[in-house]
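User: My collaborator sent over this chain with a note saying "see what the structure looks like." That's all I know about it. Can you take a look?
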Amino acid sequence: MVKKLQKMSADKKSGPQLSGAVKESAQQIWLAGLGAFSKAQEEGGKVFETLVKEGLSIQRKTQAVAEEKISTATSKMATMATDITSKAGTQWDKLENIFEERVAKALNKLGVPSAKDVEALIARIDELNKNVQKMGAKPAASKSAPRAARAKPAAGKAAVRKPAAKRAPARKSA
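Assistant: Without extra context I'll predict from the sequence alone. Here is the result:
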């Protein structure tokens, strides 16, 4: 284009030919711009689709890595929670045993028989009842029985005392 203008000026042609050449040159520039715009629009769509595909691929990879990290963190937290739970359970059991021992000691000092003592006495009473039934006597012990025949508590164990039975109030006859 510049060469054409230089040729025209070199030829020293008149003004109308120069203006025609400028119009033609402007027309070519305009068409070149439209062509470039069209080409960019076509290529831009393809580039845009390519970028979208690459972005989707990167997003999937990122999500996979994030899920892996979350899975690892979750398993570590579950392991820690299990460890803490077992340690807490062990400590709770120790505390419970200490409490039970101290309560048992306090009750023993007060003369209250333990559950084992009561179970032993019940077993002994059952055995004595069976023996009495074999002899043919009634299972209820009489007050006149000699002291030696009465059941003695085991050595070292506190005797179980039953509270006196409550008597019903005497009814008045009207």
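A starting point for your reply to your collaborator: The chain is about 70% helix and 0% strand.
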